[in-house]
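[step 3/7] fold_predict: job queued, chain A
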Amino acid sequence: MVQGVTINAHQQDKWVWLNDPSGIYTVRSAYNLLDNGSRDENLDGTFKDIWKLKILSKAAFFAWRLIRDRLPTKSNLCRRDIDINDKMCPFCRDKEE
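[step 4/7] structure written:
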């Protein structure tokens, strides 16, 4: 792979962000990359509506995590192979699903 690359000693190295035509990284270009990758999951506009609400950002983030099933519940932690001591539901003492 390296054999076909010509190194120019008279040119300075630089970082290039391939997801923007300018080659410069911006938060907007990263957001657009992530947003375009999950557009099929957001067809109903629910997630965009959450971020437009006039609520604390941590409340909006909690709602987003709740809808996406990304809260650190025991079952989610087990699914991600994170070791927890007790996998039983603290209320009913049944295995949490």
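[step 5/7] annotate
The first helix runs from residue 27 to 37.
The mean pLDDT is 79.
exit 0
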